[in-house]
Amino acid sequence: MNIEIRKGDITKVHTDAIVNAANSKLLGGGGVDGAIHRAAGKQLLAECRRLRETTLQDGLPAGQAVATDGYDLPARWVIHTVGPVYAKTKDKSDILASCYRESLRVADELGAKSVAFPAISAGIYGWPMDSATRIAVDTVLAADTQVGTVVFVPFSEDAEGAFQEALRTSRDA
Ligand code: ADP
After folding, report:
1. Distance of alpha carbon 63 from alpha carbon 95, whole angstroms
2. Which of 40, 49, 54, 68 sits between 20 and 30 A of 61, alpha carbons compared?
């Protein structure tokens, strides 16, 4: 698998699929979720509403993933996943790792060969960047998937450095 780190706005990335750090309601929100909905256009929200009325009436649980079209985005699909809210007193690393694994599983179902990820849970959900990016890189490298290219899209220099360090140390290992 080819792994790239490309700092910037994930809504501009031309991979087959981009991953959205959504919330369980799946109806848009702040951070990267808001940016993706703005860039994809209203049809994305309409498809999310249909999912909520049919297969996801209780919302999307943390650690799971579901696909929609990408509409006005350069990416053909959006894979929505819900990261865990960070909690000092409870280790939710398994749920965060599951976001990456399940997103790649959905990508395989779609036939997507390239997938871009933001730093899931590392914004509003409060996960420390170093830990979030390490879980991201380790889980993707260990995944059994047909996806050939994964692009991590840090939104800040801080996040970019954390992804680079996680990749460097995992490859050393
Ligand atoms: P969560 O609720 O899972 O923490 P956020 O959207 O708040 O999700 O943040 C996840 C990460 O995505 C943060 O590091 C944030 O800086 C980053 N981010 C926000 N907007 C974008 C964007 N347009 N492209 C890529 N990453 C983004």
Report:
1. 5
2. 40
ipTM tops 0.95 = yes
Instruction: Count CB neighbours of 46 within 10 A.
Output: 11
Please give the Cα distance from 20 to 34 (Å, whole number).
Answer: 9
Collapsed DSSP state (helix, strand, coil) of residue 145: coil
Active-site residue flag, 33: yes
Q: Which residue in 9, 16, 33, 94 is the catalytic one?
A: 33
Residues with CB under 6 A from ligand 1: 9-11, 21, 31-33, 35, 83, 118-125, 153, 155-156, 159
Q: Would you mind telling me the total number of residues written for the chain in this entry?
A: 173
Flag whether the pTM goes above 0.95: yes
Closest Cα partner for 95 from 85, 107, 84? 84
